[in-house]
Write a structure and sequence with these properties.
alpha+beta, Beta-Lactamase, Arc Repressor Mutant, subunit A, six-stranded antiparallel sheet, 6 strands, 46% helix
């Protein structure tokens, strides 16, 4: 990994701090890891209680021990049920697994979401977030699962159109999704209102956007919100 690909550690620390503040009311177990090299960065208090480990012990847990104790995507009890992946990328943007412990005494199924927080220039995750949701949260988790699968499907259907946008048009699109006016977009990007409106027209033509709902779909599917 080149120095330019190093994730911003201040941002990572802020992300972890945010998870610590809301961990008591966000459902499930939250885990943050670095993958180049592999390093466990954070596990929420619920995860510490579930697996009987401390934060400091988790940070020094080898990758194989992590897979044995917490999550191994290749385990026979685990099944990949959905993922999104753009052409030319080496790794999926989001992955959804279901795990049912048929070989143990537990009867609790789990949904597991893995998504990158930071990626390198090839799209390979450098920092990932893993969320493990027990069956007691299955109704909440299934709604989240279906929403993510819908986003994946929309992205697969529209990624070729999205790639036709220039970098500046993508920046304009991201601000359009957030509901900013042409004047506000111009101020943020330091360009004129006429230029903004030209980009907006081009975005709508290329993406074939006919409603605010379709605009929101692009925002959700391509992580612009």
């Amino acid at each position: 990994m080149s120095p330019s690909e190093e994730p911003d550690h201040t941002l990572i620390l802020n992300k972890i701090k945010n998870f610590e503040q809301v961990a008591t009311w966000i459902p499930g177990i939250k885990i943050i890891q670095s993958h180049s090299p592999f390093q466990n960065l954070y596990i929420c208090e619920m995860g510490q209680l579930r697996y009987g480990i401390s934060q400091s012990f988790f940070r020094h847990l080898p990758i194989q021990e992590y897979r044995n104790k917490i999550f191994d995507p290749t385990n026979v009890e685990t099944c990949l049920i959905g993922k999104s992946q753009e052409s030319g990328k080496q790794s999926a943007d989001k992955e959804i697994y279901i795990r049912y412990p048929t070989l143990s005494n537990s009867e609790q199924a789990e949904l597991i979401f893995v998504e990158p927080l930071y990626k390198d220039h090839l799209g390979v995750p450098l920092i990932t977030l893993t969320q493990i949701l027990p069956s007691t949260l299955m109704n909440w988790a299934m709604a989240k699962t279906m929403r993510i699968i819908d986003e994946m499907s929309f992205m697969e259907l529209n990624k070729l159109k999205y790639r036709q946008l220039t970098k500046r048009s993508k920046e304009v699109l991201a601000l359009m999704v957030k509901g900013l006016s042409a004047e506000e977009i111009g101020q943020q990007l330091y360009i004129g209102v006429n230029t903004v409106n030209t980009h907006k027209r081009r975005v709508k033509e290329i993406l074939e956007i006919k409603s605010n709902y379709e605009l929101l779909q692009y925002g959700m599917a391509f992580d612009l919100i």
